[in-house]
Write the structure tokens for this entry.
Amino acid sequence: MQHNDHFFNRVYQVARLIPYGRVTSYGAIARYIGSAQSARMVGWAMNNSHTQKKYVPAHRVVNKNGMLTGKRHFGGSNIMEDLLKSEGIRVEDDAIVNFKKYFWDPAKELEIDF
DNA sequence: TTGCTGACCGACG
DNA sequence: CCGTCGGCCAGCA
């Protein structure tokens, strides 16, 4: 579709490539799609990701410090945290334990050019 | 159409 | 360490 060029769709495309049990940051995605200063928009895209037909693993996107800043958008309780835990990622005080170990940087792991 | 408002980030004081 | 600001761009009143 012609909407593939849209910012949001680029975000969704990259987000879907985050491997199970790994995480990345809003800023990393923004940089990767060539819009380094649009990290906030990545968050906004995640907010709308449930409207997409294809699944978007929004719980695998956190802020650059590994904190679950978007958890409140998954529902009342700890849905985001539980999803991460189910993938083997430990969370303490709304932050991913050993964040560096699980961090997945699209710029280093992918070879797609936008 | 204008003008907010964000699940962010880096820079500055 | 803390608060603030500009930049990004889609959606809504």
Remarks:
- The longest strand of chain A covers residues 24-25.
- DSSP finds six helices and four strands in chain A.
- Strands of chain A lie at 24-25, 61-62, 91-92, 95-96.
- Residues 23 and 36 of chain A are 18 Å apart (CA to CA).
